[in-house]
Amino acid sequence: MSLIVQKYGGTSVGTVERIEKVSEKLIGWRERGHKIVVVVSAMSGETDRLLNLAKAISPRPDPRELDVLLATGEQVTIGLLCIALEKRGCPARSYTGGQARILTDSAFNKARIQDIQADAIRADLDAGRVVVVAGFQGVDESGNITTLGRGGSDTTGVALAAALKADECQIYTDVDGVYTTDPRIVPTARRLDRITFEEMLEMASLGSKVLQIRSVEFAGKHNVPLRVLSTFQEGPGTLITFEEVLEAESMEKVLISGIAFNRDEAKVTVLGVPDRPGIAFSILGPVSDANIEVDMIVQNVGRDSTADFTFTVHRNDYERTLEILREQTVRLGAREVSGDNKIAKLSLVGIGMRSHAGVASRMFQALAKEGINIRMITTSEIKISVVVDEKYLELGVRALHEVFELDQVS
Ligand code: ASP
Ligand code: MG
């Protein structure tokens, strides 16, 4: 017998019929002898609907009250799911985040889980009940309702699995696993049987939206085996695990696991700044003061002892960043501030590149062959990212998928 935490996303519980289907699946698991804790999201579209109600009243709703409102979405789902389970004769009990003693800090709208006091849940499991917990929410020290940020139910699932020392945390969603890249762009993209936590973190932070990044971090840190699978079709899904586990099971190391991409990027260039200590700080200081996150950074030094400084930001922050730096042109001694918001980032991810030379040159060659100009490059141990013009994104992803033979099982 094992203890499994399952999380069902918004589409999986999007209608009353689907909630009834989920209840039948859960009963199947229980009848096979497993102890089951279920975490559910709000019914699809519900969180957005609630958010829009708040925005219709105020453009910047009070964060505490927004959490009171948003947390109701998940509360609806736990009630309905328990009603469906009980109707079928399956003992079940629902818990809001606060009732489940999911204790968080007080950062409304983006709270972090600090502790879970799971005694009541354990007692229910021992009594043979299916435990149904509202995702995305917790309670702070003073009893305020908090929420964990969009997509936060994944993190609830993982945190509960860690607290209960579950054998596996299964994330049920509308795709049947993690793919080598987005199948809408590359139809031959392949579902991965396994991927390491490190790679999954890169994929998630680079725009693959299967899992909330925080949940992957949490699972990696607390040793929770994580599996992504489909609610609507049978299959093994993708197991996210540790490198050692992968190596022990397969002799061959996979070179590249996937290609991630992100269209929400823009780049800003400050041209002709004096090449002297402190210049990076004087450019990026005001940007970070405005709470704008900077991603890739490149500085090139010209012959006339001036430098060009280029960096990327989220596309939503593009205008604001330009504005901030244009105000500073004189102070910076810059010639000009320019930018481009029609760019995209394309990344190869794979732990295998740590021990293999030549991945970067193969990547660049493949892009060159398609006539795609690379505007910026950054690398880490297990990732190479390039910025290209947005119009070449699909072409680039397809070319790389082919060159690295990601459609073939290695
Ligand atoms: N309902 C929340 C959202 O839409 C949390 C979640 O589904 O994970 O972001
Ligand atoms: Mg989600």
TrEMBL record:
Residues involved in substrate binding: T47, E74
Domain ACT positions: 268-342, 348-410
Pathway membership: Amino-acid biosynthesis; L-methionine biosynthesis via de novo pathway; L-homoserine from L-aspartate: step 1/3; Amino-acid biosynthesis; L-lysine biosynthesis via DAP pathway; (S)-tetrahydrodipicolinate from L-aspartate: step 1/4; Amino-acid biosynthesis; L-threonine biosynthesis; L-threonine from L-aspartate: step 1/5
Keywords: Amino-acid biosynthesis, ATP-binding, Kinase, Lysine biosynthesis, Nucleotide-binding, Transferase
Taxonomy, superkingdom: Bacteria
Sequence similarity: Belongs to the aspartokinase family.
Protein name stated in the entry: Aspartokinase
Species of the source: Candidatus Competibacter denitrificans Run_A_D11
Gene: lysC
